[in-house]
Specification:
There is one protein chain. The chain is an all-alpha fold. Helix content is about 80%, strand content about 0%. The protein has 14 helices and no strands.
């Protein structure tokens, strides 16, 4: 119990601070106990929503981090989380409003505080582009995991083995995502379709670009290692995780407006959830949980594929965030139960993971 608690102590303290700020903000802005309690309730629900939507994010973070140098692990868990909390949950929506409305950042902040309805409208109007970019990037993340010729562990064996047969086909996952993007674009109005297609292609290019940077850095480090130098850089993995977190956070930021259009309340609630995702990531890495439960990664990557498809489809259809969270939690939960069953059946047999 003490071991588990140590990973979540900081998140609990951060949560207490955020709820104290929410209480202060609620009382100072409304002067009503009832209204303040309502704000605290929304912050709590947003926190739970963010955690439920992002648990698969924590699993994937842990998958990448376990291969990174400890120095870069720590940088991601410190600098990276600051970018995740303050960049994506606060700066990102303000940047959307500033670009969409053609105003400066100060005016965008003023709009978020003084005219939340208009602020919500502007952010929501950018949803088609966000859905295209985030959906394409996440779909690529999930499909790349399964279209891997070196993959030997299979959870949904029939389906995953069938996918694996095509893993040697060059760029097969890119072709599938392009077909998905095009298919959804045919359901949209011409102007929206252009925005969606452009954003989706940019999502694909970003995924390819991040992996290209990582490959270049890995080649440089391999040469250094061959020369007997100490390899310390994990910048490619750091960059990949930051873009991945951004793609995950799109859904939570947009979905938060279903509960509140007040930027202060949204930022507090989502920040609490993001901090718990950090704690879960550290817990998974430090305790070797992924090595203990061999199918947990598979469940997370299937959840990412589902989330990516839902984001793409959300350009045309409204899909409640509750459904998204439940689907992801169900897939991860089933993969966990299958892992437990496997461990009981095979006892102390060494567990193999796909890297």
């Amino acid at each position: 119990m003490n071991t588990i608690r140590q990973y979540y102590t900081f998140s609990l303290a951060f949560t207490a601070v955020c709820f104290a700020l929410a209480a202060w903000y609620g009382w100072s802005s409304t002067g009503s106990i009832t209204a303040t309690l309502g704000i605290l309730w929304i912050v709590l629900v947003l926190s739970i929503l963010e955690v439920s939507l992002s648990f698969d994010n924590a699993v994937v973070n842990a998958t990448v981090l376990r291969e990174m140098d400890p120095v870069w692990q720590q940088r991601f868990l410190t600098i990276g989380i600051l970018i995740a909390v303050f960049g994506m949950r606060i700066v990102f929506p303000i940047a959307i409003v500033a670009i969409a409305a053609g105003v400066g950042p100060v005016e965008a902040i003023s709009l978020s505080l003084n005219d939340p309805q208009e602020y919500e409208r502007i952010v929501s109007s950018a949803h088609i582009g966000i859905a295209g970019f985030g959906g394409a990037f996440l779909a690529m993340v999930g499909l790349t995991f399964f279209f891997d010729s070196d993959k030997q562990v299979h959870w949904i064996a029939v389906l995953e083995r069938a996918i694996n047969k095509f893993s040697n086909v060059p760029a097969v996952e890119i072709g599938l995502v392009l077909l998905l993007i095009y298919g959804v674009s045919t359901m949209l109005a011409p102007a929206d379709a252009i925005v969606f297609l452009t954003a989706g292609i940019l999502g694909l290019v970003t995924f390819i670009g991040v992996h290209a940077i990582a490959a270049i850095i890995e080649q440089r480090e391999a040469r250094k290692k061959a020369a007997g130098e100490i390899v310390k850089s994990g910048f490619g993995g750091f960059l990949y995780l930051e873009v991945l977190d951004a793609s995950f956070s799109f859904d939570g930021v947009i979905g938060a407006f279903a509960l509140s259009n007040n930027m202060v309340i949204i930022a507090l609630g989502l920040s609490v959830g993001a901090m718990f995702v950090r704690s879960m990531t550290i817990h998974l890495v430090r305790t070797g949980t992924l090595a203990q439960y061999r199918y947990l990664e598979h469940g997370a990557f299937w959840a990412i594929i589902v989330l990516g498809m839902i984001m793409l489809l959300s350009a045309r259809y409204h899909i409640p965030e509750t459904i998204t969270g439940l689907l992801g939690a169900t897939l991860i939960g089933l993969s966990f139960l299958w892992s437990v069953h496997h461990n009981r059946k095979h006892g102390d047999e060494p567990i193999q993971l796909d890297s």
